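Tutorial, part two.
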Amino acid sequence: MGYDLHITRAKHWTDSKNKPIRLPEWLAYFGGDPEMRLDKVAVAKVKGKPVLAYENEGLAVWTAWSKHEPDGNMAWFDYRDGEIVVKNPDEEITAKMKRIAKALKAKVIGDDGESY
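Running the prediction step on this input gives:
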């Protein structure tokens, strides 16, 4: 399953819909951060062939992540329900999440409600 970290304005991420980061705010963020790219779709591949696709208007990738591989490993930032979610982030991605949260006047919290 994995563990998610959430960029949210709510006290707990489950309440993000009640104190949302709005999609236009998230989309506007990209104008000031050349390291982020709005892809809107992620495609999983097996042996080079697409097997699964996920599409979301607010789906973005952090292209400056040190482990970024254009045809493989990527740091996906998924906007949904008033928050931005990253699955299983490492320390580098968590630090990027904190910078994004600061710009959006939000915070980073984990699935269990702990602050980062």
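Helices lie at 23-29, 91-103. In part three we will examine how such features are distributed along the chain.
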